[in-house]
Amino acid sequence: MDFVIKEFGDRTAKELISYTHRENSPWYNTARKNSVLELLQNEQINNTEFVVDMGELVKYDKRKSALYEDFKIYHNV
To answer: Which structural domain, as residue segments, surrounds residue 30?
Structure first.
């Protein structure tokens, strides 16, 4: 948490959205895969019910990926 606060604690909401919605982010990939990216970017819609797979962030690290999968199983996600 200290890292997150240090890196992002002074960012505006607009800056955080820009960071989390950047190209190839889990949000971006989910929106593109479900054909709503352009609608969201053009503000024709402002939300969806699609689940963003945060596992994309750790899929190249076997240890982190296993921890993530265990978390999902434990919490019935």
So the answer is: 2-74
